[in-house]
Design brief:
By secondary structure, this protein is α/β, with parallel strands linked by helices. It has two domains: about 120 residues, Aspartate Aminotransferase, domain 1, CATH 3.90.1150.10; about 190 residues, Type I PLP-dependent aspartate aminotransferase-like (Major domain) (Aspartate Aminotransferase, domain 2). It contains ten helices and twelve strands. The strands form three sheets. It has a seven-stranded mixed sheet with strand order 2-8-7-6-5-3-4, sandwiched between helices. Helix 5 links the parallel strand 5 and strand 6. The chain is globular and about 70 Å long. About 50% of the residues are buried.
């Protein structure tokens, strides 16, 4: 099988797996202690967590702290609900539902428009009572890189806080300035079930789930040394490999454009993370294509919306018709994708497309 769905999840790095294994020992080992216990095994586990926290902080802006969560969805909920603000909450049309649905459930939501390329213009009008702004750094469906630093400045001008969903950007490029940033380990070759909220110094949050008061009193519950150690190792590796990974992705993108010439790219080509190629072909039956290419793992849309029966709100926001959305697929690739993998997958997809008479 060939895996081309890196936006949904990434293969776990061997280094991350090794870091986790140490903390998955059986009863004969010293590695299963509760990190919140005061005895030696507990202190060992706590030390592993703090090492990982430092590794993860290396990829964030200077000055802030990391709160571990179960993933980016929980991190975004903690940020939006925990900040305790009222007024209008602004979010871009391309935001993940973890942002848009949560903001609308807490405050008065205001949709920030995107243009046909998927870019969200920071000069657009926003309500005067805006207290919270959210614009993701890289869109998970179409890969468009937003002017996040400019949006951060705009939020500061009006006295609002800025939240950035950096799930697709973390470990791939420099993270934008923000007041709060949500990330998830399994999008940068770490394990599933662990993420983090970065909080800028001076930003105050309230506890939104009660319990033992772990994680600075903001996120109660016993932490997993294994998951966190894997996250830390993946972050450290991403920092070391960032330039090499970007060059590899650029080469894959260039080849993908050759292999799929004649397809139309959805979203900006110039302002884009090149590990995401979301494209469409008129008349394509995507459901049939996926059935005919079962050994190639790719997406017909956002993994988080799969099975919902609803057309992609991101593709709708850039002006695509329902038919064009149905003609669209997303290929995602990265560090462990070889050129041969991409070429073989393209051959199979193109052969299946020809079977449809296209």
């Amino acid at each position: 099988m060939i895996y081309l769905d890196y936006q949904a999840s990434t293969p776990i790095a061997p280094e991350a797996r090794e870091a986790m294994l140490r903390w998955l020992g059986g009863s004969e080992s010293l590695s299963f202690g509760n990190p919140h216990s005061s005895h030696q095994m507990g202190r060992m586990a706590a030390a592993a967590i703090e090492l990982a926290r430092e590794q993860i902080l290396e990829l964030f802006p200077a000055g802030g702290k990391v709160i571990f969560t179960s993933g980016a969805t929980e991190a975004l909920n903690l940020a939006i609900r925990g900040v305790g603000l009222k007024g209008t909450f602004c979010f871009s049309a391309g935001e993940h539902s973890a942002v848009s649905d949560t903001m609308k459930s807490v405050g008065k939501g205001h949709l920030l428009k995107v243009d046909r390329s998927g870019l969200c213009d920071p000069d657009q009008e926003i309500p005067s009572d805006t207290s919270l702004v959210a614009v993701m750094q890289i869109n998970n469906e179409i890969g468009v890189i937003q002017p996040s630093n400019t949006w951060y400045s705009r939020a500061k001008e009006i006295g609002a806080l800025y939240i950035c969903d950096a799930v697709q950007a973390y470990g791939k490029l420099n993270i934008a300035n923000a007041d709060m940033i949500a990330v998830s380990a399994h999008k940068l070759h770490g394990p599933k079930g662990i993420g983090a909220l970065w909080i800028r110094d001076g930003v105050q949050l309230n506890e939104i789930q009660t319990g033992g008061g772990q994680e600075c009193g903001l996120r109660s519950g016993t932490m997993s040394p294994a998951l966190i150690a894997g996250f830390g190792a993946a972050a450290a590796l991403a920092k070391d490999c960032m330039e090499e990974d970007a060059l590899h992705v650029r080469r894959l993108w260039a080849r993908a454009r050759e292999l799929f010439s004649g397809w139309t790219i959805n979203g900006s080509v110039s302002e884009r993370w090149l590990g995401n190629i979301n494209m469409r072909l008129e008349g394509l039956d995507v459901a049939r294509l996926m059935s005919d290419c079962r050994d190639v793992m790719f997406s017909a849309g956002s993994a988080c919306a799969s099975g919902s029966g609803r057309p992609s709100h991101v593709l709708q926001s850039i002006g695509l018709s329902r038919e064009q959305i149905k003609n669209s697929i997303r290929l995602g690739y990265g560090r462990y994708t070889s050129l041969e993998d991409l070429e073989t997958a393209a051959l199979r997809i193109r052969a299946a497309v020809r079977e449809q008479g296209l």
